[in-house]
Amino acid sequence: MIQQHLGLAPPQTDIPRPSEPRAPVEETIPVEETITADVPPQATHETALESSCPPENPSP
Fold first, then answer.
1. The dihedral of CA 11, 17, 19, 22: what is its sign?
2. For the whole model, what pTM was predicted?
3. Using CA atoms, how far apart are residues 9 and 7, in angstroms rounded to an integer?
4. How many domains would you assign to the chain?
5. CA dihedral sign, ordered 54, 56, 57, 59
6. What pLDDT score was predicted for residue 8?
7. Host domain of residue 26
C-alpha cells in the first residue's frame, strides 16, 4: 500500500520538475523573440492574401 502511494507521487513531481524550469526560461527568451518575428510575417501574410484575391477573380 505504501509502495503504491510512493509510486504515484514521484511521477507527478517528475512532470512539473522539468516543466517548471523550462517554462520560465523558454517564456522569457522566446516570448520577446516571437513577438518580433510575428510582426514581419504578418505583413507578408496580408500581401499574399491580396495577391491571391485578384488572380482568383479573373479566373472565373
1. negative
2. 0.12
3. 6
4. 1
5. positive
6. 56
7. 2-56
Q: Tell me, what's the pLDDT at 47? A: 54
pLDDT in the model for residue 22:
52
- List pLDDT tens digits, range 9-51: 555 555 555 555 555 555 555 555 555 555 555 555 555 555 5
Place of cell 499574399: 48
Dist CA 60 CA 58 (whole Å): 6
- What does the DSSP assignment read for the chain? -HHHHHHHHHHHHHTHHHHHHHHHHHHHHHHHHHHHHHHHHHHHHHHHHHHHHHHHTT--
Residues 50, 56, 57: CA angle, nearest 5 degrees = 95
